[in-house]
Amino acid sequence: MNCQICEPATSAQSELVGLWYALRDGGDASGVRRASMDPGRLRKFLSRVALLEVTQKDDFLVRLCGSSLRAELGADPAGKSLSALPARWSRILALGSQTTRTRNLPVSGMIRTADGEADLVFSRLPLLGRDGSVQFVLCFNEVVNVDPERGSGGSVHDDIPVEEVAIAA
Q1: Residue 166 in 3-state DSSP?
Q2: Under the phi-then-psi rule, with left for phi > 0, alpha for psi from -120 to 50, and beta for the rest, what region is 135?
Q3: How open is the CA angle 68-121-157, to the nearest 5 degrees?
């Protein structure tokens, strides 16, 4: 298993991170406000996006979750803390979220399954709340390079050993 923080590896990651920088550079240099992130500009990514809110206990609360992520999870996690989700999904959504929050910069990465049949790419984008601090993290997850012999049965996320993932700060 190989997890690494990297530059955006897919066109979707590049587009999302590019949008974040365009919004930051075109407005408040301290970051991108949640209100500035227009869902219309994210339309083609919405099924793969989750919005996390930072809680007072340094945990995250899922505010919204796209349809593809909900289908893979088998439930709608909106309103639940990451710690209340199944462990695998808690770890997947947590990947890079604290780093993004503390640095106030996007984080992208990739996890390769042990058998090399699929990669999970992720991007985390910090969003400022009304008080100007990072209060939200926009999470994007995408499975790429799936072995065509596997078909579409089940979630590829089930094969990703995220319990072994460590992200360097």
Answers
A1: coil
A2: alpha
A3: 55
pTM of the model: 0.81
Characterize the bridge pairing of strands 2-5 and 107-112: antiparallel
Residue type, 121: V
Lookup: tokens for 23:
């919004």
Query: Which residues contact residue 122 at a Cβ distance below 8 angstroms, ignoring those fewer than 6 apart?
Result: 92, 95, 96, 108, 109, 110, 111, 139, 140, 141, 142
Q: How far apart are CA 24 and CA 77, in angstroms?
A: 29
CA 156 to chain CA centroid, nearest Å? 16
Residue-wise pLDDT for 16-64, tens only, equals 988 998 888 666 667 898 888 888 888 999 999 999 999 977 789 999 9
Task: Compute the distance between CA of residue 80 and CA of residue 64 in angstroms, rounded to an integer.
Answer: 10
For residue 139, what are its two tokens? 């999470």
